[in-house]
């Protein structure tokens, strides 16, 4: 009637592979592919092999709160590794509201069993923000679900916040934040390691490879000062953008379906957040490396950046003056002031444009000049 | 427990948070209550923002049926601003729309719903050779060989033997309501895995047009990326052939795997006729080959069917203030400060204030006589309606739409053929049999089956335009906010995967003044209204058996047949007064 007992010694990834009829030689090939996929040097391969020989599939509890399920959906789109590989060979996804078989009491009991059985050994992933307004989120009759979350988190090996809502609060926390939403990280007890995977949603491969890193190497990947894995969030989109040469040349799209748009010019003046957004879109791209927003003609809305929802409108470059609540639109209020506030973006443009000696009569050029002058004055 | 109240919370394999409470007498459900147990407040969050950004916010209402909210929002804003988008943009949006219908239905069936009909662990008992024989009987899908099914079975065995069942750990395996032979269970498990692979490919259509999936990009006025077959950075031949490749693959998968699997399931579950629920069906209609404003050309027709009377279709108008209205008498909102106002409001006139009066500590049951859900109760001319693929089929059938009639009649005759070919000894089915949980599931497969045909047609039309030198994709005339009227309002509708979706927007001084979405799951998952009429989920559960109260398979089977999407359903906005929301807490 019920599921077969889970009280069996868990097999290592190598044992699983042997049972699939995979030879030692093939296994080593897989291990080298995994080593490279994790962004490691091949000389690190023995570590990966050892880990795969000894590590059982790691239990993962993945909870969803004030979420749109975008992160779970994106997770299922991963090409490398595929979600099937992750689900059946790398991790053991014990709870996920969208994918798991059981409902209601069976589902809730199972979480308790896993927490009890593998204290300090399971990954706790979450998508969606947690509201502080009682009743705004009541799972299993618990109107203050953040208390339950805190309790489970206290026993996790690590907490992984998947997506911008879990990471920063996301859209529910956008002004005026009607439910008092916060990131799940705000409710992680001290001492429990955590990691942020921002993105609305994150790229599927960013999610699966972060989980793979933890499952295979048994530790969290290296992170930046905001807790994001460096492997995926070290660079701004702008640094790796295929339209970057047009930015440097001062060639901008001024309207969708214009001549510049057909040529694939830079989308900066359409509001593109590429210069201020850290994410792997330009390199990994989306859905098996096929494309990404900027390639497909739309400016980046900066979905992996903190508070991006409140930094609109998306089709204008609006920047916040540092240390103030004031936002201005550089297209409207005079480019000189904007350049100061633009956190060095236009100054950076100036340097690029001038060094390449490909000046064109454009607003960016003017902005760049202004920025340079202002910078000298400052 | 013979009698009493059964609670299912959370209902999983859905989007969002849903709680079902059911009164049970002698193993039969006599009353049911549906509660949305989470709220975010996206309608409040979009107020005061640039209308051109609206799509990006509302798209985050749901990452499962991703893009349909974006589509409804750009349509609403274009309606308000009087923008007619170029034909190419309309076709590209149609292709993205058809893609989500296909993707969402396939994922819903295999990943979210199939486990209610398919006993995964029972697949271990199957004879792979016999499974191949059955599969080949109802489809010409090339994977259906004994060796292939043996491989899949070994994989299931490995997972079960490992003791770590992962996502399969908590299923109600062995429950007496499962009716498939082990071989058909095995076929379905194999296709579960294939669907997982398929779904990540078909959305590549969104990646081409919208840069990514989930949450591809939209633009008010058309589509953001220009078409130019001679440009490396534009939507060119190589990009369009990738789209075409995915359409072809989707066509094969839906016609040879998904639809046939649902037909065979229908044959085996022919007698499990529970879950029909409301007999009123509503569709706004959609997927015109020409323009959203050409209602007569809709391939999914518009209309309402009442009391399962398939001889009459009633006119539907999303703009008419006496048609679509929302009630809040059993929802955690107020109108005009009144807890139980007793009247409904059209979205343009409506108002909503969050007014949570539920328990603030852990609870056993909700007060279902009072307010018990974050979901409002939308009604059409004060009648409770079901929306969704089954509604599209019923309205299309009643409207004598030839393609829908053909699709439905053909499916029913194939089910009858399977019933006799498999010697199932069951009575034949007709369209009234579709008024059931399995019929709803069949309606969804037919929806996808039509969508792959529409996609082929729209792709051909797009190629034809390009061949004729028509490359326009964007109307820039109303892009700048200073070209807009001081105050204007619009509505955008979409036949989303889960049913009729409407976004109503009022734009004032270049900003969003008011916005409200009435979404498919709000219709279906609604609580009772002022007249005590129940919502579609609630009505559909009444009369269903419930064999084992702590394994409520029948409840999730019926509720899943609607494909719940609770994050979509739970909305709030303050349309009455332009001020910050009031939150009342009864501690």
TrEMBL record, chain A:
Cofactor list: [4Fe-4S] cluster
Where [4Fe-4S] cluster 1 binds, per the record, is at 68, 165, 200
Kindly list the places in or outside the cell where this protein is found, as annotated in its UniProt entry. Cell membrane
Q: What is this protein called?
A: Hydrogenase small subunit
PROSITE patterns, per this entry?
TAT (PS51318)
Q: Where does [4Fe-4S] cluster 2 bind?
A: 238, 241, 266, 272
Gene3D superfamilies per record: Cytochrome-c3 hydrogenase, C-terminal domain, NADH:ubiquinone oxidoreductase-like, 20kDa subunit
From TrEMBL, chain B:
Main site of residence? other
State the Gene Ontology terms under molecular function: ferredoxin hydrogenase activity; nickel cation binding
**Compartment(s) where it occurs, according to its Swiss-Prot or TrEMBL record:** Cell envelope
Q: Does the keyword Transport apply?
A: no
**Which InterPro entries is this protein grouped with?**
Ni-dep_hyd_lsu, Ni-dep_hyd_lsu_Ni_BS, NiFe-Hase_large, NiFe/NiFeSe_hydrgnase_LSU
Is Metal-binding a UniProt keyword of this protein?
yes
Q: How does it assemble?
A: Heterodimer of a large and a small subunit.
Per the record, the similarity remark reads:
Belongs to the [NiFe]/[NiFeSe] hydrogenase large subunit family.
The identity of this protein, by name, is Hydrogenase large subunit
* Native organism: Brockia lithotrophica
Q: What is the lineage of its organism?
A: Bacteria, Bacillati, Bacillota, Bacilli, Bacillales
């Amino acid at each position: 009637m019920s599921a077969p007992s889970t009280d069996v010694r868990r097999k290592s990834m190598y044992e699983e592979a042997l049972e699939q009829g995979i030879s030692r030689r093939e296994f080593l090939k897989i291990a080298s592919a995994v080593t490279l996929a994790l962004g490691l040097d091949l000389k690190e391969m023995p570590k990966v092999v050892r880990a795969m020989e000894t590590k059982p599939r790691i239990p993962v509890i993945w909870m969803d709160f004030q979420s749109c399920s975008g992160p779970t959906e994106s997770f299922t789109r991963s090409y490398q590794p595929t979600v099937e590989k992750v689900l059946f060979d790398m991790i053991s996804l014990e709870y996920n509201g969208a994918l798991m078989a059981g409902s209601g009491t069976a589902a809730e009991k199972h979480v308790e069993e896993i927490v009890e059985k593998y204290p300090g050994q399971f990954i706790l992933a979450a998508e969606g923000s947690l509201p502080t307004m009682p009743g705004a989120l009541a799972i299993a009759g618990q109107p203050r679900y953040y208390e339950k979350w805190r309790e489970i988190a206290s026993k996790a090996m690590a907490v992984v916040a998947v997506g911008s809502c879990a990471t920063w609060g996301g859209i529910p926390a956008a002004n005026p934040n009607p439910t008092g939403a916060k990131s799940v990280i705000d409710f992680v007890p001290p001492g429990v390691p955590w990691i942020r995977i921002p993105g609305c949603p994150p790229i599927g491969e960013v999610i699966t490879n972060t989980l793979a890193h933890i499952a295979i190497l048994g530790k969290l990947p290296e992170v930046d000062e905001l807790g994001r894995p460096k492997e995926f969030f070290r660079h701004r989109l702008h640094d790796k953008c295929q339209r970057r040469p047009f930015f440097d040349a001062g060639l901008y799209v001024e309207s969708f379906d214009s001549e510049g748009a057909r040529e694939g010019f830079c989308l900066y003046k359409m509001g593109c957040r590429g210069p201020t957004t850290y994410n792997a879109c330009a390199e990994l791209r989306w859905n098996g490396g096929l494309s990404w927003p900027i390639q497909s003609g739309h400016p980046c809305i900066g979905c992996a950046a903190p508070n991006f929802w409140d930094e609109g409108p998306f089709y204008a470059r609006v920047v916040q003056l540092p240390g103030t609540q004031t936002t201005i639109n550089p297209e409207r209020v005079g480019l000189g002031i904007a350049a100061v506030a633009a956190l060095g973006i236009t100054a950076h443009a100036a340097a690029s444009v001038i060094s390449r000696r490909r000046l064109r009569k454009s607003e960016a050029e003017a902005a760049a000049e202004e920025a340079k002058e202002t910078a000298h004055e400052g | 427990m013979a009698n009493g109240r059964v609670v299912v919370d959370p209902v999983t394999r859905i989007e969002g948070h849903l709680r079902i409470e059911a009164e049970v007498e002698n193993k039969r459900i006599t009353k049911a209550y549906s509660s949305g147990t989470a709220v975010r407040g996206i309608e409040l969050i979009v107020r005061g923002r640039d209308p051109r950004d609206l799509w990006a916010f509302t798209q985050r209402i749901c990452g499962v049926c991703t893009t349909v909210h974006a589509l409804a929002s750009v349509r609403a804003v274009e309606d308000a601003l009087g923008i007619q988008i170029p034909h190419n943009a309309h076709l590209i949006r149609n292709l993205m729309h058809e893609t989500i219908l296909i993707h969402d239905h396939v994922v819903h069936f295999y990943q979210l719903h199939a486990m209610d009909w398919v006993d995964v662990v029972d697949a271990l008992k199957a004879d792979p050779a016999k499974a191949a024989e059955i599969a080949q009987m109802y489809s010409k899908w090339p994977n259906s060989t004994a060796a292939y099914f043996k491989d899949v079975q070994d994989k299931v065995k490995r997972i079960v033997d490992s003791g770590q069942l992962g996502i399969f750990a908590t299923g109600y395996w062995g429950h007496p309501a499962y009716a498939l032979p082990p071989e058909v269970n095995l076929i379905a498990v194999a296709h579960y895995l294939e669907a997982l692979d398929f779904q990540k490919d078909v959305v590549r259509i969104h990646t081409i047009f919208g840069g990514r999936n989930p949450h591809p990009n939209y633009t008010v006025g058309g589509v953001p990326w220009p078409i130019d077959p001679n440009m490396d950075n534009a939507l060119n031949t190589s990009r369009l052939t990738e789209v075409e490749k995915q359409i072809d693959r989707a066509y094969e998968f839906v016609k040879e795997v998904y639809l046939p699997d649902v037909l065979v399931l229908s044959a085996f579950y022919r007698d499990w006729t529970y879950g029909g629920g409301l007999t009123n069906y509503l569709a706004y209609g959609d997927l015109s080959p020409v323009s959203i404003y050409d209602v007569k050309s809709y391939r999914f027709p518009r209309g309402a069917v009442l009391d399962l009377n398939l001889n009459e279709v009633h006119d539907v108008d999303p703009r008419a203030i006496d048609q679509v209205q929302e009630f809040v008498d059993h929802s955690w909102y107020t109108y005009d400060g009144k807890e139980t106002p007793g009247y409904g409001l059209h979205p343009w006139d409506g108002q909503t204030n969050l007014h949570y009066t539920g328990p603030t500590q852990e609870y056993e049951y909700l007060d279902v006589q009072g307010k018990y859900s974050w979901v409002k109760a939308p009604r059409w001319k004060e009648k409770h309606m079901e929306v969704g693929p089954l509604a599209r089929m019923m309205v299309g059938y009643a409207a004598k739409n030839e393609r829908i009639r053909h699709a439905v009649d053909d499916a029913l005759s194939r089910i009858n053929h399977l019933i006799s070919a498999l010697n199932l000894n069951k009575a034949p089915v007709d369209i009234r049999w579709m008024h059931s949980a399995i019929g709803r599931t069949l309606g969804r497969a037919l929806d996808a089956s039509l969508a792959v045909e529409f996609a082929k047609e729209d792709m051909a039309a797009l190629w034809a335009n390009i061949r004729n030198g028509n490359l326009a994709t964007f109307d820039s005339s109303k892009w700048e906010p200073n070209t807009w009227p001081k105050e204007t309002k619009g509505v955008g509708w979409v036949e989303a995967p889960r049913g009729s979706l409407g976004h109503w927007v009022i734009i004032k001084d270049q900003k969003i003044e008011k916005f409200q979405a009435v979404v498919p799951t709000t219709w279906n998952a609604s609580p009772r209204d002022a007249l005590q009429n129940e919502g579609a989920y609630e009505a559909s559960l009444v009369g269903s058996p419930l064999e084992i109260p702590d394994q409520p398979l029948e409840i999730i089977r019926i509720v899943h047949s609607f494909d719940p999407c609770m994050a979509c359903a739970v909305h709030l906005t303050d349309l009455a007064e332009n001020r910050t929301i009031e939150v009342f807490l009864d501690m």
